[in-house]
Amino acid sequence: MKTNPDRTELAARMSAMGEKARIASRRMAAMSTFDKNNALRAMADALDHESGAIIAENEKDVAAAADKGLSKPMIERLKLDSRKIRGMSDGLRQLIELEDPVGKILSSCIRPNGLKIDKVSVPIGVIAIIYESRPNVTVDSAGLCLKAGNAAILRGGSEAIKSNSALLHCINRAGLEAGVPEGAIQAPPPGREAVNAMLKMDRYIDLVIPRGGEGLIRTVAENSMIPVIKHYKGVCHLYVDASADLDMAERLVVNAKCQRPGVCNAIESLLIHGDIAGSFAPRIAKALSGKGVELRGDCEFRRLAPCAIPATEEDWSEEYLDLVLSVRIVPDVQTAAEHINFYGSQHSDGIIAKDPAAVSYFLNQVDSAVVYHNASTRFTDGGEFGMGAEIGISTDKLHARGPMGLRELNTYKYIVYGNGQCRE
Amino acid sequence: MKTNPDRTELAARMSAMGEKARIASRRMAAMSTFDKNNALRAMADALDHESGAIIAENEKDVAAAADKGLSKPMIERLKLDSRKIRGMSDGLRQLIELEDPVGKILSSCIRPNGLKIDKVSVPIGVIAIIYESRPNVTVDSAGLCLKAGNAAILRGGSEAIKSNSALLHCINRAGLEAGVPEGAIQAPPPGREAVNAMLKMDRYIDLVIPRGGEGLIRTVAENSMIPVIKHYKGVCHLYVDASADLDMAERLVVNAKCQRPGVCNAIESLLIHGDIAGSFAPRIAKALSGKGVELRGDCEFRRLAPCAIPATEEDWSEEYLDLVLSVRIVPDVQTAAEHINFYGSQHSDGIIAKDPAAVSYFLNQVDSAVVYHNASTRFTDGGEFGMGAEIGISTDKLHARGPMGLRELNTYKYIVYGNGQCRE
């Protein structure tokens, strides 16, 4: 079989990158908290000092994006200014304050034969993050991986290539001087081929985290031989029970839909118990319409709120990320839970109710990473959960579920201390 | 596009199976400990009562295996008798004694805004187990999944099809009568196509656990769209440091290699520090040869132990599962750790040493699920770790590492209790 020389060169380059990351990861696992914090401080300072040069590179990306006709919100997300860079450096400084997750004894026991078995937290190793658009993910991810003792391979979107490269060079230079091993933070060469090759490098990479649109995440999940933790879409719900305080329900629904509709923990669907629909449906329709929300309802909801347009089957599993909300009237909490489990994305879903039986049924039966009683779904966030920072919100069930912070960027090993025990 | 009618029928059958398992899993998540234990007892009793019929079905498998010319050890593993069936029913009864892992509050906090956030253990959902040969895995896995609140889809090897089917019918009938929901324990239709279809059913199955040879595990990992926890090969090592107690070292090496060479936590490679090789190499060569172990050494070891044959590059990463051991002389603990990280399978590796610096270097730097100081690697086992029972030993780093018991068959969810909190 003939081999494409470009492909061979790429393969060699990718292996070299992987091996470097693996070697760096072993040294990083042994770095002290003091050294890691020093490096984070040096990286933050470097970002502040070099923000002019970074913005100059970013302007080239922005100009290219405008030429390509990218949408205005996309360009807004791409654009850096000194305030946004200050946000990144402050993010790194906040990581200094957070507890080092490495080396904690999670449990310990002494077996009848005298073996002492400690379960100890250790870094995962090498983590690849594949993301789109926002260049701040470069700095946030690098900082989180460093503090958790992991090497990072960062693959940003092609539209942010110059910005990401400038950010990476800046924090890498500062990190290296502060004692971070070479290869701790790397970017693969550009192009789809490199990503495809990366997803097969299970020898060098321990975990892939895709962050971005549904298409990106699906492609990564389908092609990866490395374990993936998906940070997938948020089709979140609030269910207003017959026993709900309707004033509270109105406030919570409006907050969960309107406070920031473009994020994954905003609600996309509202379920209303039939017994209170007569009073609550017109009221919430008025409140939401007043905020500019387009309502898509089932028959019964539209009868009570004529401003709503018909919802199609697709609407029930759609992540609008916009001022649009689907609404359904349900006969009971069982139907609400079934609807959420069937159409939802196992992200964040809540019940507004006073009846303890309905509350406990809902909280137990809804199979989502975060379930809420009498609160807005918008709280699903590492900061709001007290984790300090997050690499994303996992919609997977294994390893990490919901907001994923420093602790979730670690795994564990068992350390067994003996004095000559043989197995009989 | 034309569709093969057989394939359409299979797809429909598989979806029906998946949906039934999903529905059952929701009901199982809410089963009380009392009800689950009752079901386990009923299943154990049924196995004891129906052991004659099960053995009769097993005899058909054994006869077919003999016709097909399966190896004697394979046939031994396949064969059931009343003692082995009693072992299965006792295994189920032991699960009754173990703590129910579901519904534990893993952590809890109250945020400044008054939100109470509980992190609570919940079943994973639907678990598919793909395994070979030993029919007892059918009963062990079904029991573990049930106690942990999960629905199970069990796909055994084709050579054990009648035995597995008899076992499954027996425990299912007893379970159903005792209140286990229908669909809680299922087997897919036979054939490779069914397995391939199953690995794409990420809508219905939350986790796939392959248990068996390297080929099976690799195929599953490469084709699955569902998260896989691999229970891969064990290329385990002992490293005898210059500071080792050599009497202890001899005992531990002999135990780790010879006590049961066919299992994944037996050692396949021995590393000896150069400073003590002159005395230890001839001594351990004699002890191991006396037990019938074939030694494959590097140059230096063969100089000291002429009975050894040359080790090839492949030997260093080979899982012999037999009375064969590769041996290398290393200059220091750093080289030992590097060798293990490079050639090993991140399963179980140990150091025999008195020097605290060498010990701590080894335990920190060796990136394996279980690292040992002064003990045999043969202790990597759910029972020996005090977990009571295990579904296998994970060589992955995510979710579960090392022995995987009831607790590792659960995930968690966050339950957030509010009183009307909106995000500002």
Q: Which short descriptors sum up this protein?
A:
Aldehyde Dehydrogenase, Chain A, domain 1, Aldehyde Dehydrogenase, Chain A, domain 2, 2 domains, homodimer, alpha/beta, 424 residues
Total individual domains of chain A: 2
CATH architecture designation of the largest domain in chain A: 3-Layer(aba) Sandwich
The whole-angstrom Rg of chain A is: 24 Å
Look at the structure and give the CATH class of the largest domain in chain A. Alpha Beta
Structural category of chain A is alpha/beta
The interface involving the most residues is between:
A-B, 66 and 65 residues
The name CATH uses for the topology of the largest domain in chain A is Aldehyde Dehydrogenase, Chain A, domain 1
Taking strands numbered 1, 2, ... along the chain, how are they ordered across the largest sheet of chain A?
Answer: 10-9-11-8-7-12-13
Question: Order of helices and strands of chain A, N to C?
Answer: HHHHHEEEHEHEHEHEHEHEHEEHEHEEEE
Measured between the Cα atoms of the first and last residue of chain A, the distance is 53 Å
Mean pLDDT of chain A: 94
What share of the residues of chain A lie within helices?
40-55%
Please state the overall shape of chain A, judged from the principal axes of the Cα atoms. globular
Query: How would a textbook summarize the main sheet of chain A?
Result: 7 strands, parallel
**So how many helices of chain A?**
14
Query: What oligomeric state do the depicted chains represent?
Result: homodimer
Give start-end ranges of low-pLDDT stretches of chain A. none
Number of strands of chain A: 16
Strand content of chain A: 15-25%
* CATH homologous superfamily identity of the largest domain in chain A: Aldehyde Dehydrogenase, Chain A, domain 1
